[in-house]
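Appendix B, example 12.
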Amino acid sequence: MCILLLAIDCVEGWPLVLLGNRDEFHARPSMGAQPWMSAADCLGGTDLEAGGSWLMQRNDGRFAAVTNVRSGARATLPRSRGELVRDFVLGNDAPSDFIDALLEQRERYAPFNLVIGERRAIWLIEGIDGRVHRLARGVHAISNGPFNARWPKADSLQTAFGAATARGLPEDERLFALLRDEREADPASLPDTGVGHELERRLSPIFIRDSAYGTRCSTLVLHDGDDGLHVRERLFDAHARVVDDVAWKCTDVESEWVLA
């Protein structure tokens, strides 16, 4: 993912609300969210080039998502960041053990922000400096910089989400509209991540429209108060047209994922 928003215990009836956009080269092969063939209790998209995922959810509440980080560091390293998402959700290590193992080998991955969690406990691991944060109740927007960095797109999404949920969780379409914001940031507010001002400008919207590298999908993940899970994903082509829109649900930890 390239932007994530997590609302933890602050939308009535929904202990966790997660929104995210995945930005990637359109030529990179992938599949949208569906149950994994090797683990039907896990749902997520698949990067067909490296075998990992950008966001996965298991029917018992265990989940993970990753963003890249623009830091000027080399982006191509031996291990794919998507492996971190896949390995946490498919595995059964306690989050603390997974984090300890990751911190010992984080230099093998290009810079990342990794979110991992279970139903009532969520952490963020910063790949560059190895900082670990237990995410508290509230709304957290995470993009391509350090945690809590004042990035324009993260601030915009967090503000818009607060307004949209002031009276409870709105319909999916309003949440998708938040993720479809193509407005560029004020040039004076752009970060400097070493890619040049023009590219910073083009990458500044929440939704990136570009024929080579842009937003490939928008995803909603909702945990309800009865241990039910709801995932909806909207896929886009290189012209930012919707090419698929799929919804999955799982009513409890013993249930299978089914199309909603």
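Residues 42 and 58 are 4 Å apart (CA to CA). The longest strand covers residues 14-25.
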